[in-house]
Write a structure and sequence with these properties.
elongated, mainly alpha, about 90 residues
């Protein structure tokens, strides 16, 4: 199992330390999230390549970046964030 990095540009510590960095549509730090996005793409490509080279093996990639972005994009559908007073990005 390979585990990817989460959307680190959305982490409060980085948002606090780098308030002037460019923001993405989720109001997170775009440069950090771009690194995580590219990393996820490259690890997925590696997993697919390994699967082709070793068809009897099982490889799993846990895409934390993709999961983070999906939750932010679908926050209203996944829960009652607005009713509980949470800010959806």
């Amino acid at each position: 199992m390979l585990v990817g990095a989460p959307a680190q540009g959305c982490q409060p510590g980085f948002l606090f330390l780098y308030p002037d960095f460019p923001k993405d549509p989720h109001d997170c730090l775009a440069p950090l999230n771009e690194i995580d996005r590219v990393h996820a793409e490259q690890v997925l490509a590696l997993v697919n390549e390994l699967g082709d080279l070793h068809p009897d093996a099982t490889y799993t990639f846990l895409d934390l970046y993709g999961a983070n972005v999906y939750v932010m994009d679908h926050a209203d559908e996944l829960g009652k964030a607005k009713e509980k007073g949470f800010k959806t990005l």
